[in-house]
Amino acid sequence: MRRTGRIIRKRRSPDNHVTTPRSRPAVRAAAALAAGALALSLTACGGGDDGDDDKGGGTGGTENTVTLPELDGASLEVAAVWTGAEQANFKKVLAEFEKRTGAKVTFVPAQDPIINFLGSKIAGGAPPDVAMLPQPGAVRQAVEKNWAKPLGAKARAELAENYSPGWQDIGTVDGKQYGVYYKAANKSLIWYNAQVFENAGASEPKTWDELLTAAQTVYDSGVTPFSVGGAEGWTLTDWFENVYLSQAGPEKYDQLARHEIKWTDPSVTEALATLAEIWGKKDYVAGGASGALQTDFPASVTQTFTGGDQPKAGMVYEGDFVQVNIGETEAEVGTDAKVFPFPAVGDAPPVVSGGDAAVILEDSEAAQALVTFLASPDAARIHAGLGGYLSPNRNVPASAYPNDVQRKMAKALVDAGDDFRFDMSDQAPQAFGGTPGKGEWKALQDFLKNPRDIAGTQARLEADAAAAYGN
């Protein structure tokens, strides 16, 4: 299950890698999203409506805002790496499309890396009609392999109506629109067990030093501070990106994302040393390094919110989608499970985002209709109401989200407009930033196991990056 920034508009470099303009003021990006993120402190937030419906995810709209064709007898396959509740919720969106068109839609569970999965399906002559691709690099790769088909006029019209130019741009390759970013994420949040914090006398931190203080306070109360889903390397890249963005700053972040500076750069040394203050601290990670490396992402969440005030850990880092997994426990978001923005390591707190784009592989009226539906507020409204989901669609009403927490997160995302930074590993070639057991995922898993080996980790990261980027 690949999860999907700090928000900034992307362009393409001559070598086809995703790039970001150097001239865009980083402070504006930070202010737009950080201001929204800072409103996410859940001390006073529960599941009720705060009466602010028109100020959240968009401008509202009627129940059905898009006209869909009659597709009786048509069948479609949609592939995604989503599992568990995330998959179940998406299937409810697909069920509404079936109801409105008469088409039959089958969800096809995919494995990471999804490009490899799709390659095998295409080689076997059975590609899915639509795939949800979790990286801009994967969208470009699908285009370069002649797998992806351009969006039709109706899908493009929905995008123009509902999405900011920046979100349209990251689904564009060589001037043609291929992707609809149906799902987005704010990946700069730390969730905590409220009873653990209350018992320990810990408070929500705003800086890295305050986070270390809170962790020690939780530890002194008898609870391990952090749960880390190290079995899935993407969670570790997200940890690194938040520390690096805040500490090194957006210019360096952009340069490292493009491999214009090496992973042996002193700024990377500093970020890894900072991570080691948690990953390398004895008894700060549930199960130790070996236990964390056997803990997948869902378990890293559920073990933080089960066991009452004696869970396996007091805090877990990851994005807004953590709510889906909290829903599998008895904890309630806003009361038992609360959240604070990832603390500032440097001058400003980081906000990192990502997303999943719907891309057509088998062009047909039905496939075009489905992607048009996914670009509309209608589809996003259904998914939003189920929790654990954010849409970059600016015309999804705030009232669609089930609680004040998600309304604030959606507002922060939409209010950022075109000022956003995307997940760094998602911008990298998939061989480096998106493959289990390889590249950045594997190097950071090894670093979690041995946080003293900063120089060796940097050397491995640089060797793998150089091979993947071809420089």
SSE blueprint:
Elements: E1 11-12, E2 18-19, H1 26-38, E3 75-80, H2 84-101, E4 104-109, H3 114-123, E5 130-133, H4 136-144, H5 153-162, H6 165-169, E6 172-173, E7 176-177, E8 179-186, E9 189-193, H7 194-200, H8 208-220, E10 226-227, H9 233-248, H10 250-257, H11 266-279, H12 288-292, H13 297-302, E11 315-317, H14 322-326, E12 337-341, E13 353-360, H15 365-374, H16 377-385, H17 404-415, H18 424-427, H19 430-433, H20 439-449, H21 454-469
Parallel strand pairs: 3-4, 3-5, 10-11
Antiparallel strand pairs: 1-2, 5-13, 6-7, 8-13, 9-11, 9-12
Pfam families: SBP_bac_1
Region (Disordered): 1-25
Keywords: Transport
Overall description:
The structure is a single chain. By secondary structure, the protein is of the alpha/beta class. The chain has two domains: 60-185 and 353-415, Periplasmic binding protein-like II (D-Maltodextrin-Binding Protein, domain 2), CATH 3.40.190.10; 189-341, Periplasmic binding protein-like II (D-Maltodextrin-Binding Protein, domain 2), CATH 3.40.190.10. It has 21 helices and 13 strands. It has a five-stranded mixed β-sheet. α2 links the parallel β3 and β4. α9 (233-248) packs across α20 (439-449). The longest helix is centred in the first third of the chain and has 18 residues, at 84-101. The chain is globular and about 65 Å long. It holds the Pfam family SBP_bac_1. Residues 1-12 have a biased composition (Basic residues).
CATH class identity of the largest domain: Alpha Beta
The CATH topology of the largest domain: D-Maltodextrin-Binding Protein, domain 2
CATH superfamily placement of the largest domain: Periplasmic binding protein-like II
Mean pLDDT over all positions: 86
Structural class: alpha/beta
End-to-end distance, in Å? 30 Å
Low-confidence stretches: 1-62
Task: Please provide the count of β strands.
Answer: 13
